[in-house]
Amino acid sequence: MTSLSTKSSSLSSVSAGRKAKDRAAKVFVYAAFALAIIPLVSVLWTVISNGAKRFDGVFLTHSMNGLASKDAGGGAYHAIIGTLEQVGLTALISVPLGVLTAIYLVEYARGGRLGRTISFFVDVMTGIPSIVSGLFVLAFWLLALGMDFSGFAGALSLTILMLPTVVRATEEMLKLVPGDLKEAAYALGVPRWRTIMFVVLPTALPGIVSGVMLAVARVMGETAPLLLTIFITKAINTDPFSGAQGSLPTFIWDQSTDPNANAVDRAWAGALVLILLIMLLNLAARLVAWLRRPSAR
Amino acid sequence: MTSETPAALAKAAERPRPALSMSTGRAGDRIFAGLSRGSGLVILAIMAAIAVFLVWKAIPALQDDKANFLTSQEWNPDGAPAKFGIAQLVFGTLMTSVLALVMAVPVAVGIALFITYYAPRRLAGVMAYLVDLLAAVPSIVYGLWGLNFLVTKMTGVSGFLNSYFGWIPLFGGSETGGRTILTAAIVLAIMILPIISAITREVFVQVPHAHVEAALALGATRWEMIRMSVLPFGRSGMVSAAMLGLGRALGETIAVAMVLSTTAGIDWHILKDGGNTFAANIANTFAMSGPTGRSALIASGLVLFVITLLVNVGARAVVARRKEFS
């Protein structure tokens, strides 16, 4: 395409006006790309340069317990633990549910009415604003069932955000599994569930793993639902099932709403840790997909 | 949620289903089919529960409300008497999201065109990845960046726009600042850019080669080829991408909550500090809310949920219609 179009403009029968329009369009699309890259670079640069100030051993190994926000020192240890536990619990709930739902949609429903209904509501779920998922857990888990703020409540709200991503990613991967493989298994008399478990899933596994990693990376940065479900604490709480728990996003929120320079520095360092975790997951997902790509096998 | 699984499982296992007719009837097959079906049903149950519990927990506050829920600009649910309404929130949410959309769509379409038709083939993949990275940055980080970096820059921009373009009603007013609706809209625009450009790109890649080559063979310049074959083909795709972006922007919470300095009341001057949105209001006032306050926030969240639902379903409908025609 590209080579064709350059030739056509060199035929020299193109009038000046048309040339100018073509040039203008070219400038516009280049500028559009640059406009997207500027904020990306700016965000990463400010996070790295401001976050490096407090990105040290103390920050990674200490909580904020007993410290006022104006004090120097302190760290995000409680928040890192909280985030890892909450995200782990979220994955523990939503991966089996999501993968099984995808299996139902691809292998069993085959365009039936229930399948189409579930598929529609998975789409609806994708569009749920994160704050609404937090409000739901607040209404259901905390108000209706009378439970307390806890890391698990946060995980429940994150599950609602992660589930549809897992279902869609798994569905795409399952659809790519060649029918021949399944038919070969059926022809050998392998029961259907064993075919799915030991032929279909292993074939689709790298894709599912990288999809799950991306989904985890996405929910890791969610703040809004956590504000309503885990509340805010300065102390280390390793038990996600009872009491308020910290998390990196709420830690950043808490520290940044304080006008104090020490607190703002901690917020930037927290943002740096969060971005590093997310980028690591993103890279790992890419790596898994690349290492196990079909042409490499 | 977990308590529903066994019930759903039992129900699925009891009745033979047409979907299971290919099953060999073995126990393992029945259990596995039941499990996967049950998971699907759990998703339906969650969606139903979201609707039911939000409505249920919103009702008490709505009954206590002494002001008109739809038209009041006040938000004081814990006062005596409780008075709150969503008029200001609707205004702020729509204003920020629509402004964000107006800024993001042309840029996103430009990026999609750049990556599919202008960028060197080898670099296109890397460039697409860079744009997608914008989506990987969490909203709290955009909020932090917006509050500590963009706001300081926008104070000057607001002043400039106000003194030179003050004759445009939106840019008018006597005060300008950095923590404005305009700044919030810019942050939102950056956040919805990757999703709009990713979907648009997917549509542009599907443009039939024959259309592209026919246009070029007729002597069209690259821009004329894009205008004649790519844009018409991708129109419905762009519309649905924009609507999905709008849905994202409407529900975005933390970045907006951090950037805006919330003040009460509807103000059309987008260069002035202030404004509020559904999501930002929930995040900002939740910690200090009493029982009625929480219930009122749930009511406002329900309205937000319905609005985003309509926008998203609309976007899907546009996609579905396009599939029928092509």
UniProtKB/TrEMBL annotation, chain A:
How does the protein's chain sit in the membrane according to the entry? Multi-pass membrane protein
Annotated Pfam families? BPD_transp_1 (PF00528)
User: Function of this protein?
Assistant: Part of the binding-protein-dependent transport system for phosphate; probably responsible for the translocation of the substrate across the membrane.
| Gene that this polypeptide is encoded by | pstA
Q: Which Gene3D superfamilies match?
A: MetI-like
Q: Which InterPro entries match?
A: MetI-like (IPR000515), MetI-like_sf (IPR035906), Phosphate_PstA (IPR005672), Phosphate_transprt_permease (IPR051408)
> Which PANTHER family does this one have?
PHOSPHATE TRANSPORT SYSTEM PERMEASE PROTEIN PSTA
Q: Which SUPFAM superfamilies match?
A: MetI-like
Key words of the record:
Cell membrane, Membrane, Phosphate transport, Transmembrane, Transmembrane helix, Transport
Location relative to the cell: Cell membrane
Q: Organism, per UniProt? A: Actinomadura violacea
The residues covered by the ABC transmembrane type-1 domain are: 80-285
- Name of this chain's protein: Phosphate transport system permease protein PstA
Instruction: Spell out where the chain crosses the membrane.
Output: 27-48, 87-106, 118-143, 149-167, 196-217, 267-291
Specify whether Hydrolase is a keyword of the entry.
no
Q: What family does the database annotate?
A: Belongs to the binding-protein-dependent transport system permease family. CysTW subfamily.
